[in-house]
Amino acid sequence: MRFRHPDGSTVHLAYCTNVHPAETLDGVLAQLRDHCEPVRRRLGRDRLGIGLWLAHDAAHALVTDPSALRRLRTELDRRGLEVVTLNGFPYQGFGAEEVKYRVYRPDWADPERLDHTTSLARVLAGLLPDDVTDGTISTLPLAWRTAYDDARAEKSRTALVTLAERLDALAELTGRSIRVGLEPEPGCVVETTGDAIAPLTAIGHDRIGICVDTCHLATSFEDPHTAVDALTTAGIPIVKSQLSAALHAEHPHLPEVRDALAAFAEPRFLHQTRTVTGTGRHGTDDLGEAVAGGALPDTAPWRSHFHVPLHAAPAAPLTSTLPVLRTALARLVGGPHPLTRHLEVETYTWQALPPELRPRARAQLTEGIAAELTLARDLLTDLGLKELP
User: Where does the record place the Xylose isomerase-like TIM barrel domain (predicted)?
Assistant: First the structure.
């Protein structure tokens, strides 16, 4: 979906396909047929933006076989879909029964991460619509925090500098400008937007910036205005933003609140949980650790890294951090000029919701994704952007 900002520029809105994980090119093509095109039709749109997630094997097939890339581009066009952004965070196995810590491997100290991201950039340059010259990729925020020492930090910095040089060369060759954004996430080396400033300043290249995920922002109790002001002051480009909402518990000391939270503790994904007290920010690596008791102070609200559907906050006594998303979006695109032009709804946890909240059929998932995009569209038009055909 495209929107005209009051300054005349185009802002793109997509939804991320990591909710339909596939490891191969055939699986990606099936996603387009079974999920993406039905969402477009449900919205009554001639064109729908999608943020593709391409696992390693799919990306490798596309970058090594020009006919495969042409096939994917043809299918996108035929189904009324367009791609200006990729989710390059998960490397592979995002559809596994247990993902947890595996999603952070390989990290930026591992050459495989550089090679994979380079492949993604080359693929994206070939998928951009004919009238679009700029693409973006979100990526791992360097590494999970443990076992990350100075030597690995230097390897990561060198890899990202090399990536920037490759992106420069790609732009010169194709005329397509691809930028990559580190996506701060609780528990990682870059947990907050503030944590991103020093390593990105050390890289010192405008092709490497930040992806602001509003679920992660909220989980870490970051104020959107403070975060964005610090990034702009430091000259860190916000290459894209993922629109997502976290799980919020206002009174975690109450037994009924703990019971409600426990229903969201599940074995597939990691749901880092945070609180802020007078002594600072405290956290656990997963929601189950928090609700078990004793690992996290319960005198202040808790937030958990669980991407809940934007349009459907959980029932009381829980809620979502949609207000943080609203504030962040207003700051990012509600001013005289957009600070980013690529927005991506990213709720990948539909099938990890408590059983009674999960879509029971493909059509229900289509309805849910369409409802999320409708909410995001309404937020954008309320900010003065005009939806384009």
Answer: 57-244
CATH of the domain at 326: 3.20.20.150
Residues 6+ apart with CB under 8 A from 281: 220, 221, 274, 275
Residue 21 has pLDDT above 90, yes or no: no
Q: How far apart are CA 175 and CA 134, in angstroms?
A: 9
Structure tokens at 315: 């029932």
The answer to whether 385 and 330 have CB atoms below 8 angstroms apart is no
62 lies in a domain? yes
| Residue-level pLDDT at 51 | 98
Q: Which two tokens stand for residue 218?
A: 């909220």
pLDDT in tens, 284-324: 999 999 999 899 999 999 999 999 999 999 999 999 999 99
Contact 79/28 with Cβ under 8 angstroms? no
- Domain residues for 220? 2-245+307-312+321-387
Neighbours of 69 (CB within 10 A): 19
